[in-house]
Structures are given as C-alpha cells and as structure tokens.
Fold this protein.
Amino acid sequence: MTYPPPGDPYGAPTPPQQPYGAPQPQYGAPTPPPPYGAPPLPYGAAPGYDNPYGTPAVQYASWIQRVGAYLLDYLVIVPFYIVVAVIGAISDSSAASILAVLIYLAGAGTSLYNRWFLGGRTGQTWGKKVVGLRLVSEQTGQPIGAGMAFVRDLAHIIDGVICYIGFLFPLWDAKKQTIADKIMKTIVVK
C-alpha cells in the first residue's frame, strides 16, 4: 500500500511516525537496569524494584536514654576512683600514692578507651550498647571514628559554657542534638 503525498487535499491518512528517544516500557513492567556508567545499585537492591515501604525513618535517642547511657559509662569508672580515694584516706606512704596514681590512670584510660575508641569506631560505648543507642554521622549514618569522637568530646566544652544548657538541647531540638552534635554533624539513634 502506498500513501498519498503529504499535501494530499483529500485528508488521506499519513504514515505512522517513530517516537523520539527510547521506547517506553509497558505499564507494570519493571524498571530496566541503570545504563552503562550509572552509579551502581546499593547492596541488596534489585533493578526496577522500589522499596514499597519507603526508607526507614531515623529514630533519634531521647534525652533520658542519652543520660542513662552516660551514667552507665560513668559507673564503669567509679570503682577506680573509689579505690583511689580509699588508698588516699588510709595511707600517706609514697608507695600508696604511686599505686593511687596508677589506678587513677587506669580508670582514665578505661574511660578514654570506652568513649573515644569504642564510641568512635563502633558508635557505641558500653553504656550506649546497654541502652541500645549509636552515635553516627548525620551525613553517612556510620560511626565517626576515634579521632572525631575525641574532637566531639572537646566540642562538649561548648555545651557546658552557658550553664550546661547545651546538654539540655536534646529536650527541644528536632534531631535531639546537643550543641556539640550540631558542630560535629552527629546524631544519636536507637
């Protein structure tokens, strides 16, 4: 069958034209995989299948949970300081003083290991682990590392500058962050 010329005065049908671009998938068909050069899909994701429930909402830790985790972390080092106080009260010899200093340093080392190494590398100090909390980067959702955990502890100085108001920020902040958390871009999640 031949078609009449384009200027046909009688309005005869014109031949079908090809659509621009790639053909559209049929209704209900899965989305094709990403083209070459596109970023890879995250682990466990199949091409064309969206999460029907959406992304999970972040559950921020409440202020009381954070305080509970801090108190549990503090309880771990209290025995060291009690022993130092008892040694100081019952003896004034130089050997006892050296022992007290060593025990004090062991307590401080335990606290620093817990807060900076464990807290930075895993996101959980011993207290946070018991309460079920994690300290993570707001951007990546991953633990912040030992060095940044140290810097975060330094940033907590700002929380205490104005009558410790910075530590109360999680009571009214939408993301339950202290001032140090805002500076370091960290969140504490359940």
In short: The mean pLDDT is 83. Residues 52 and 75 are 44 Å apart (CA to CA). Helices lie at 63-90, 94-122, 126-131, 146-161, 179-184.
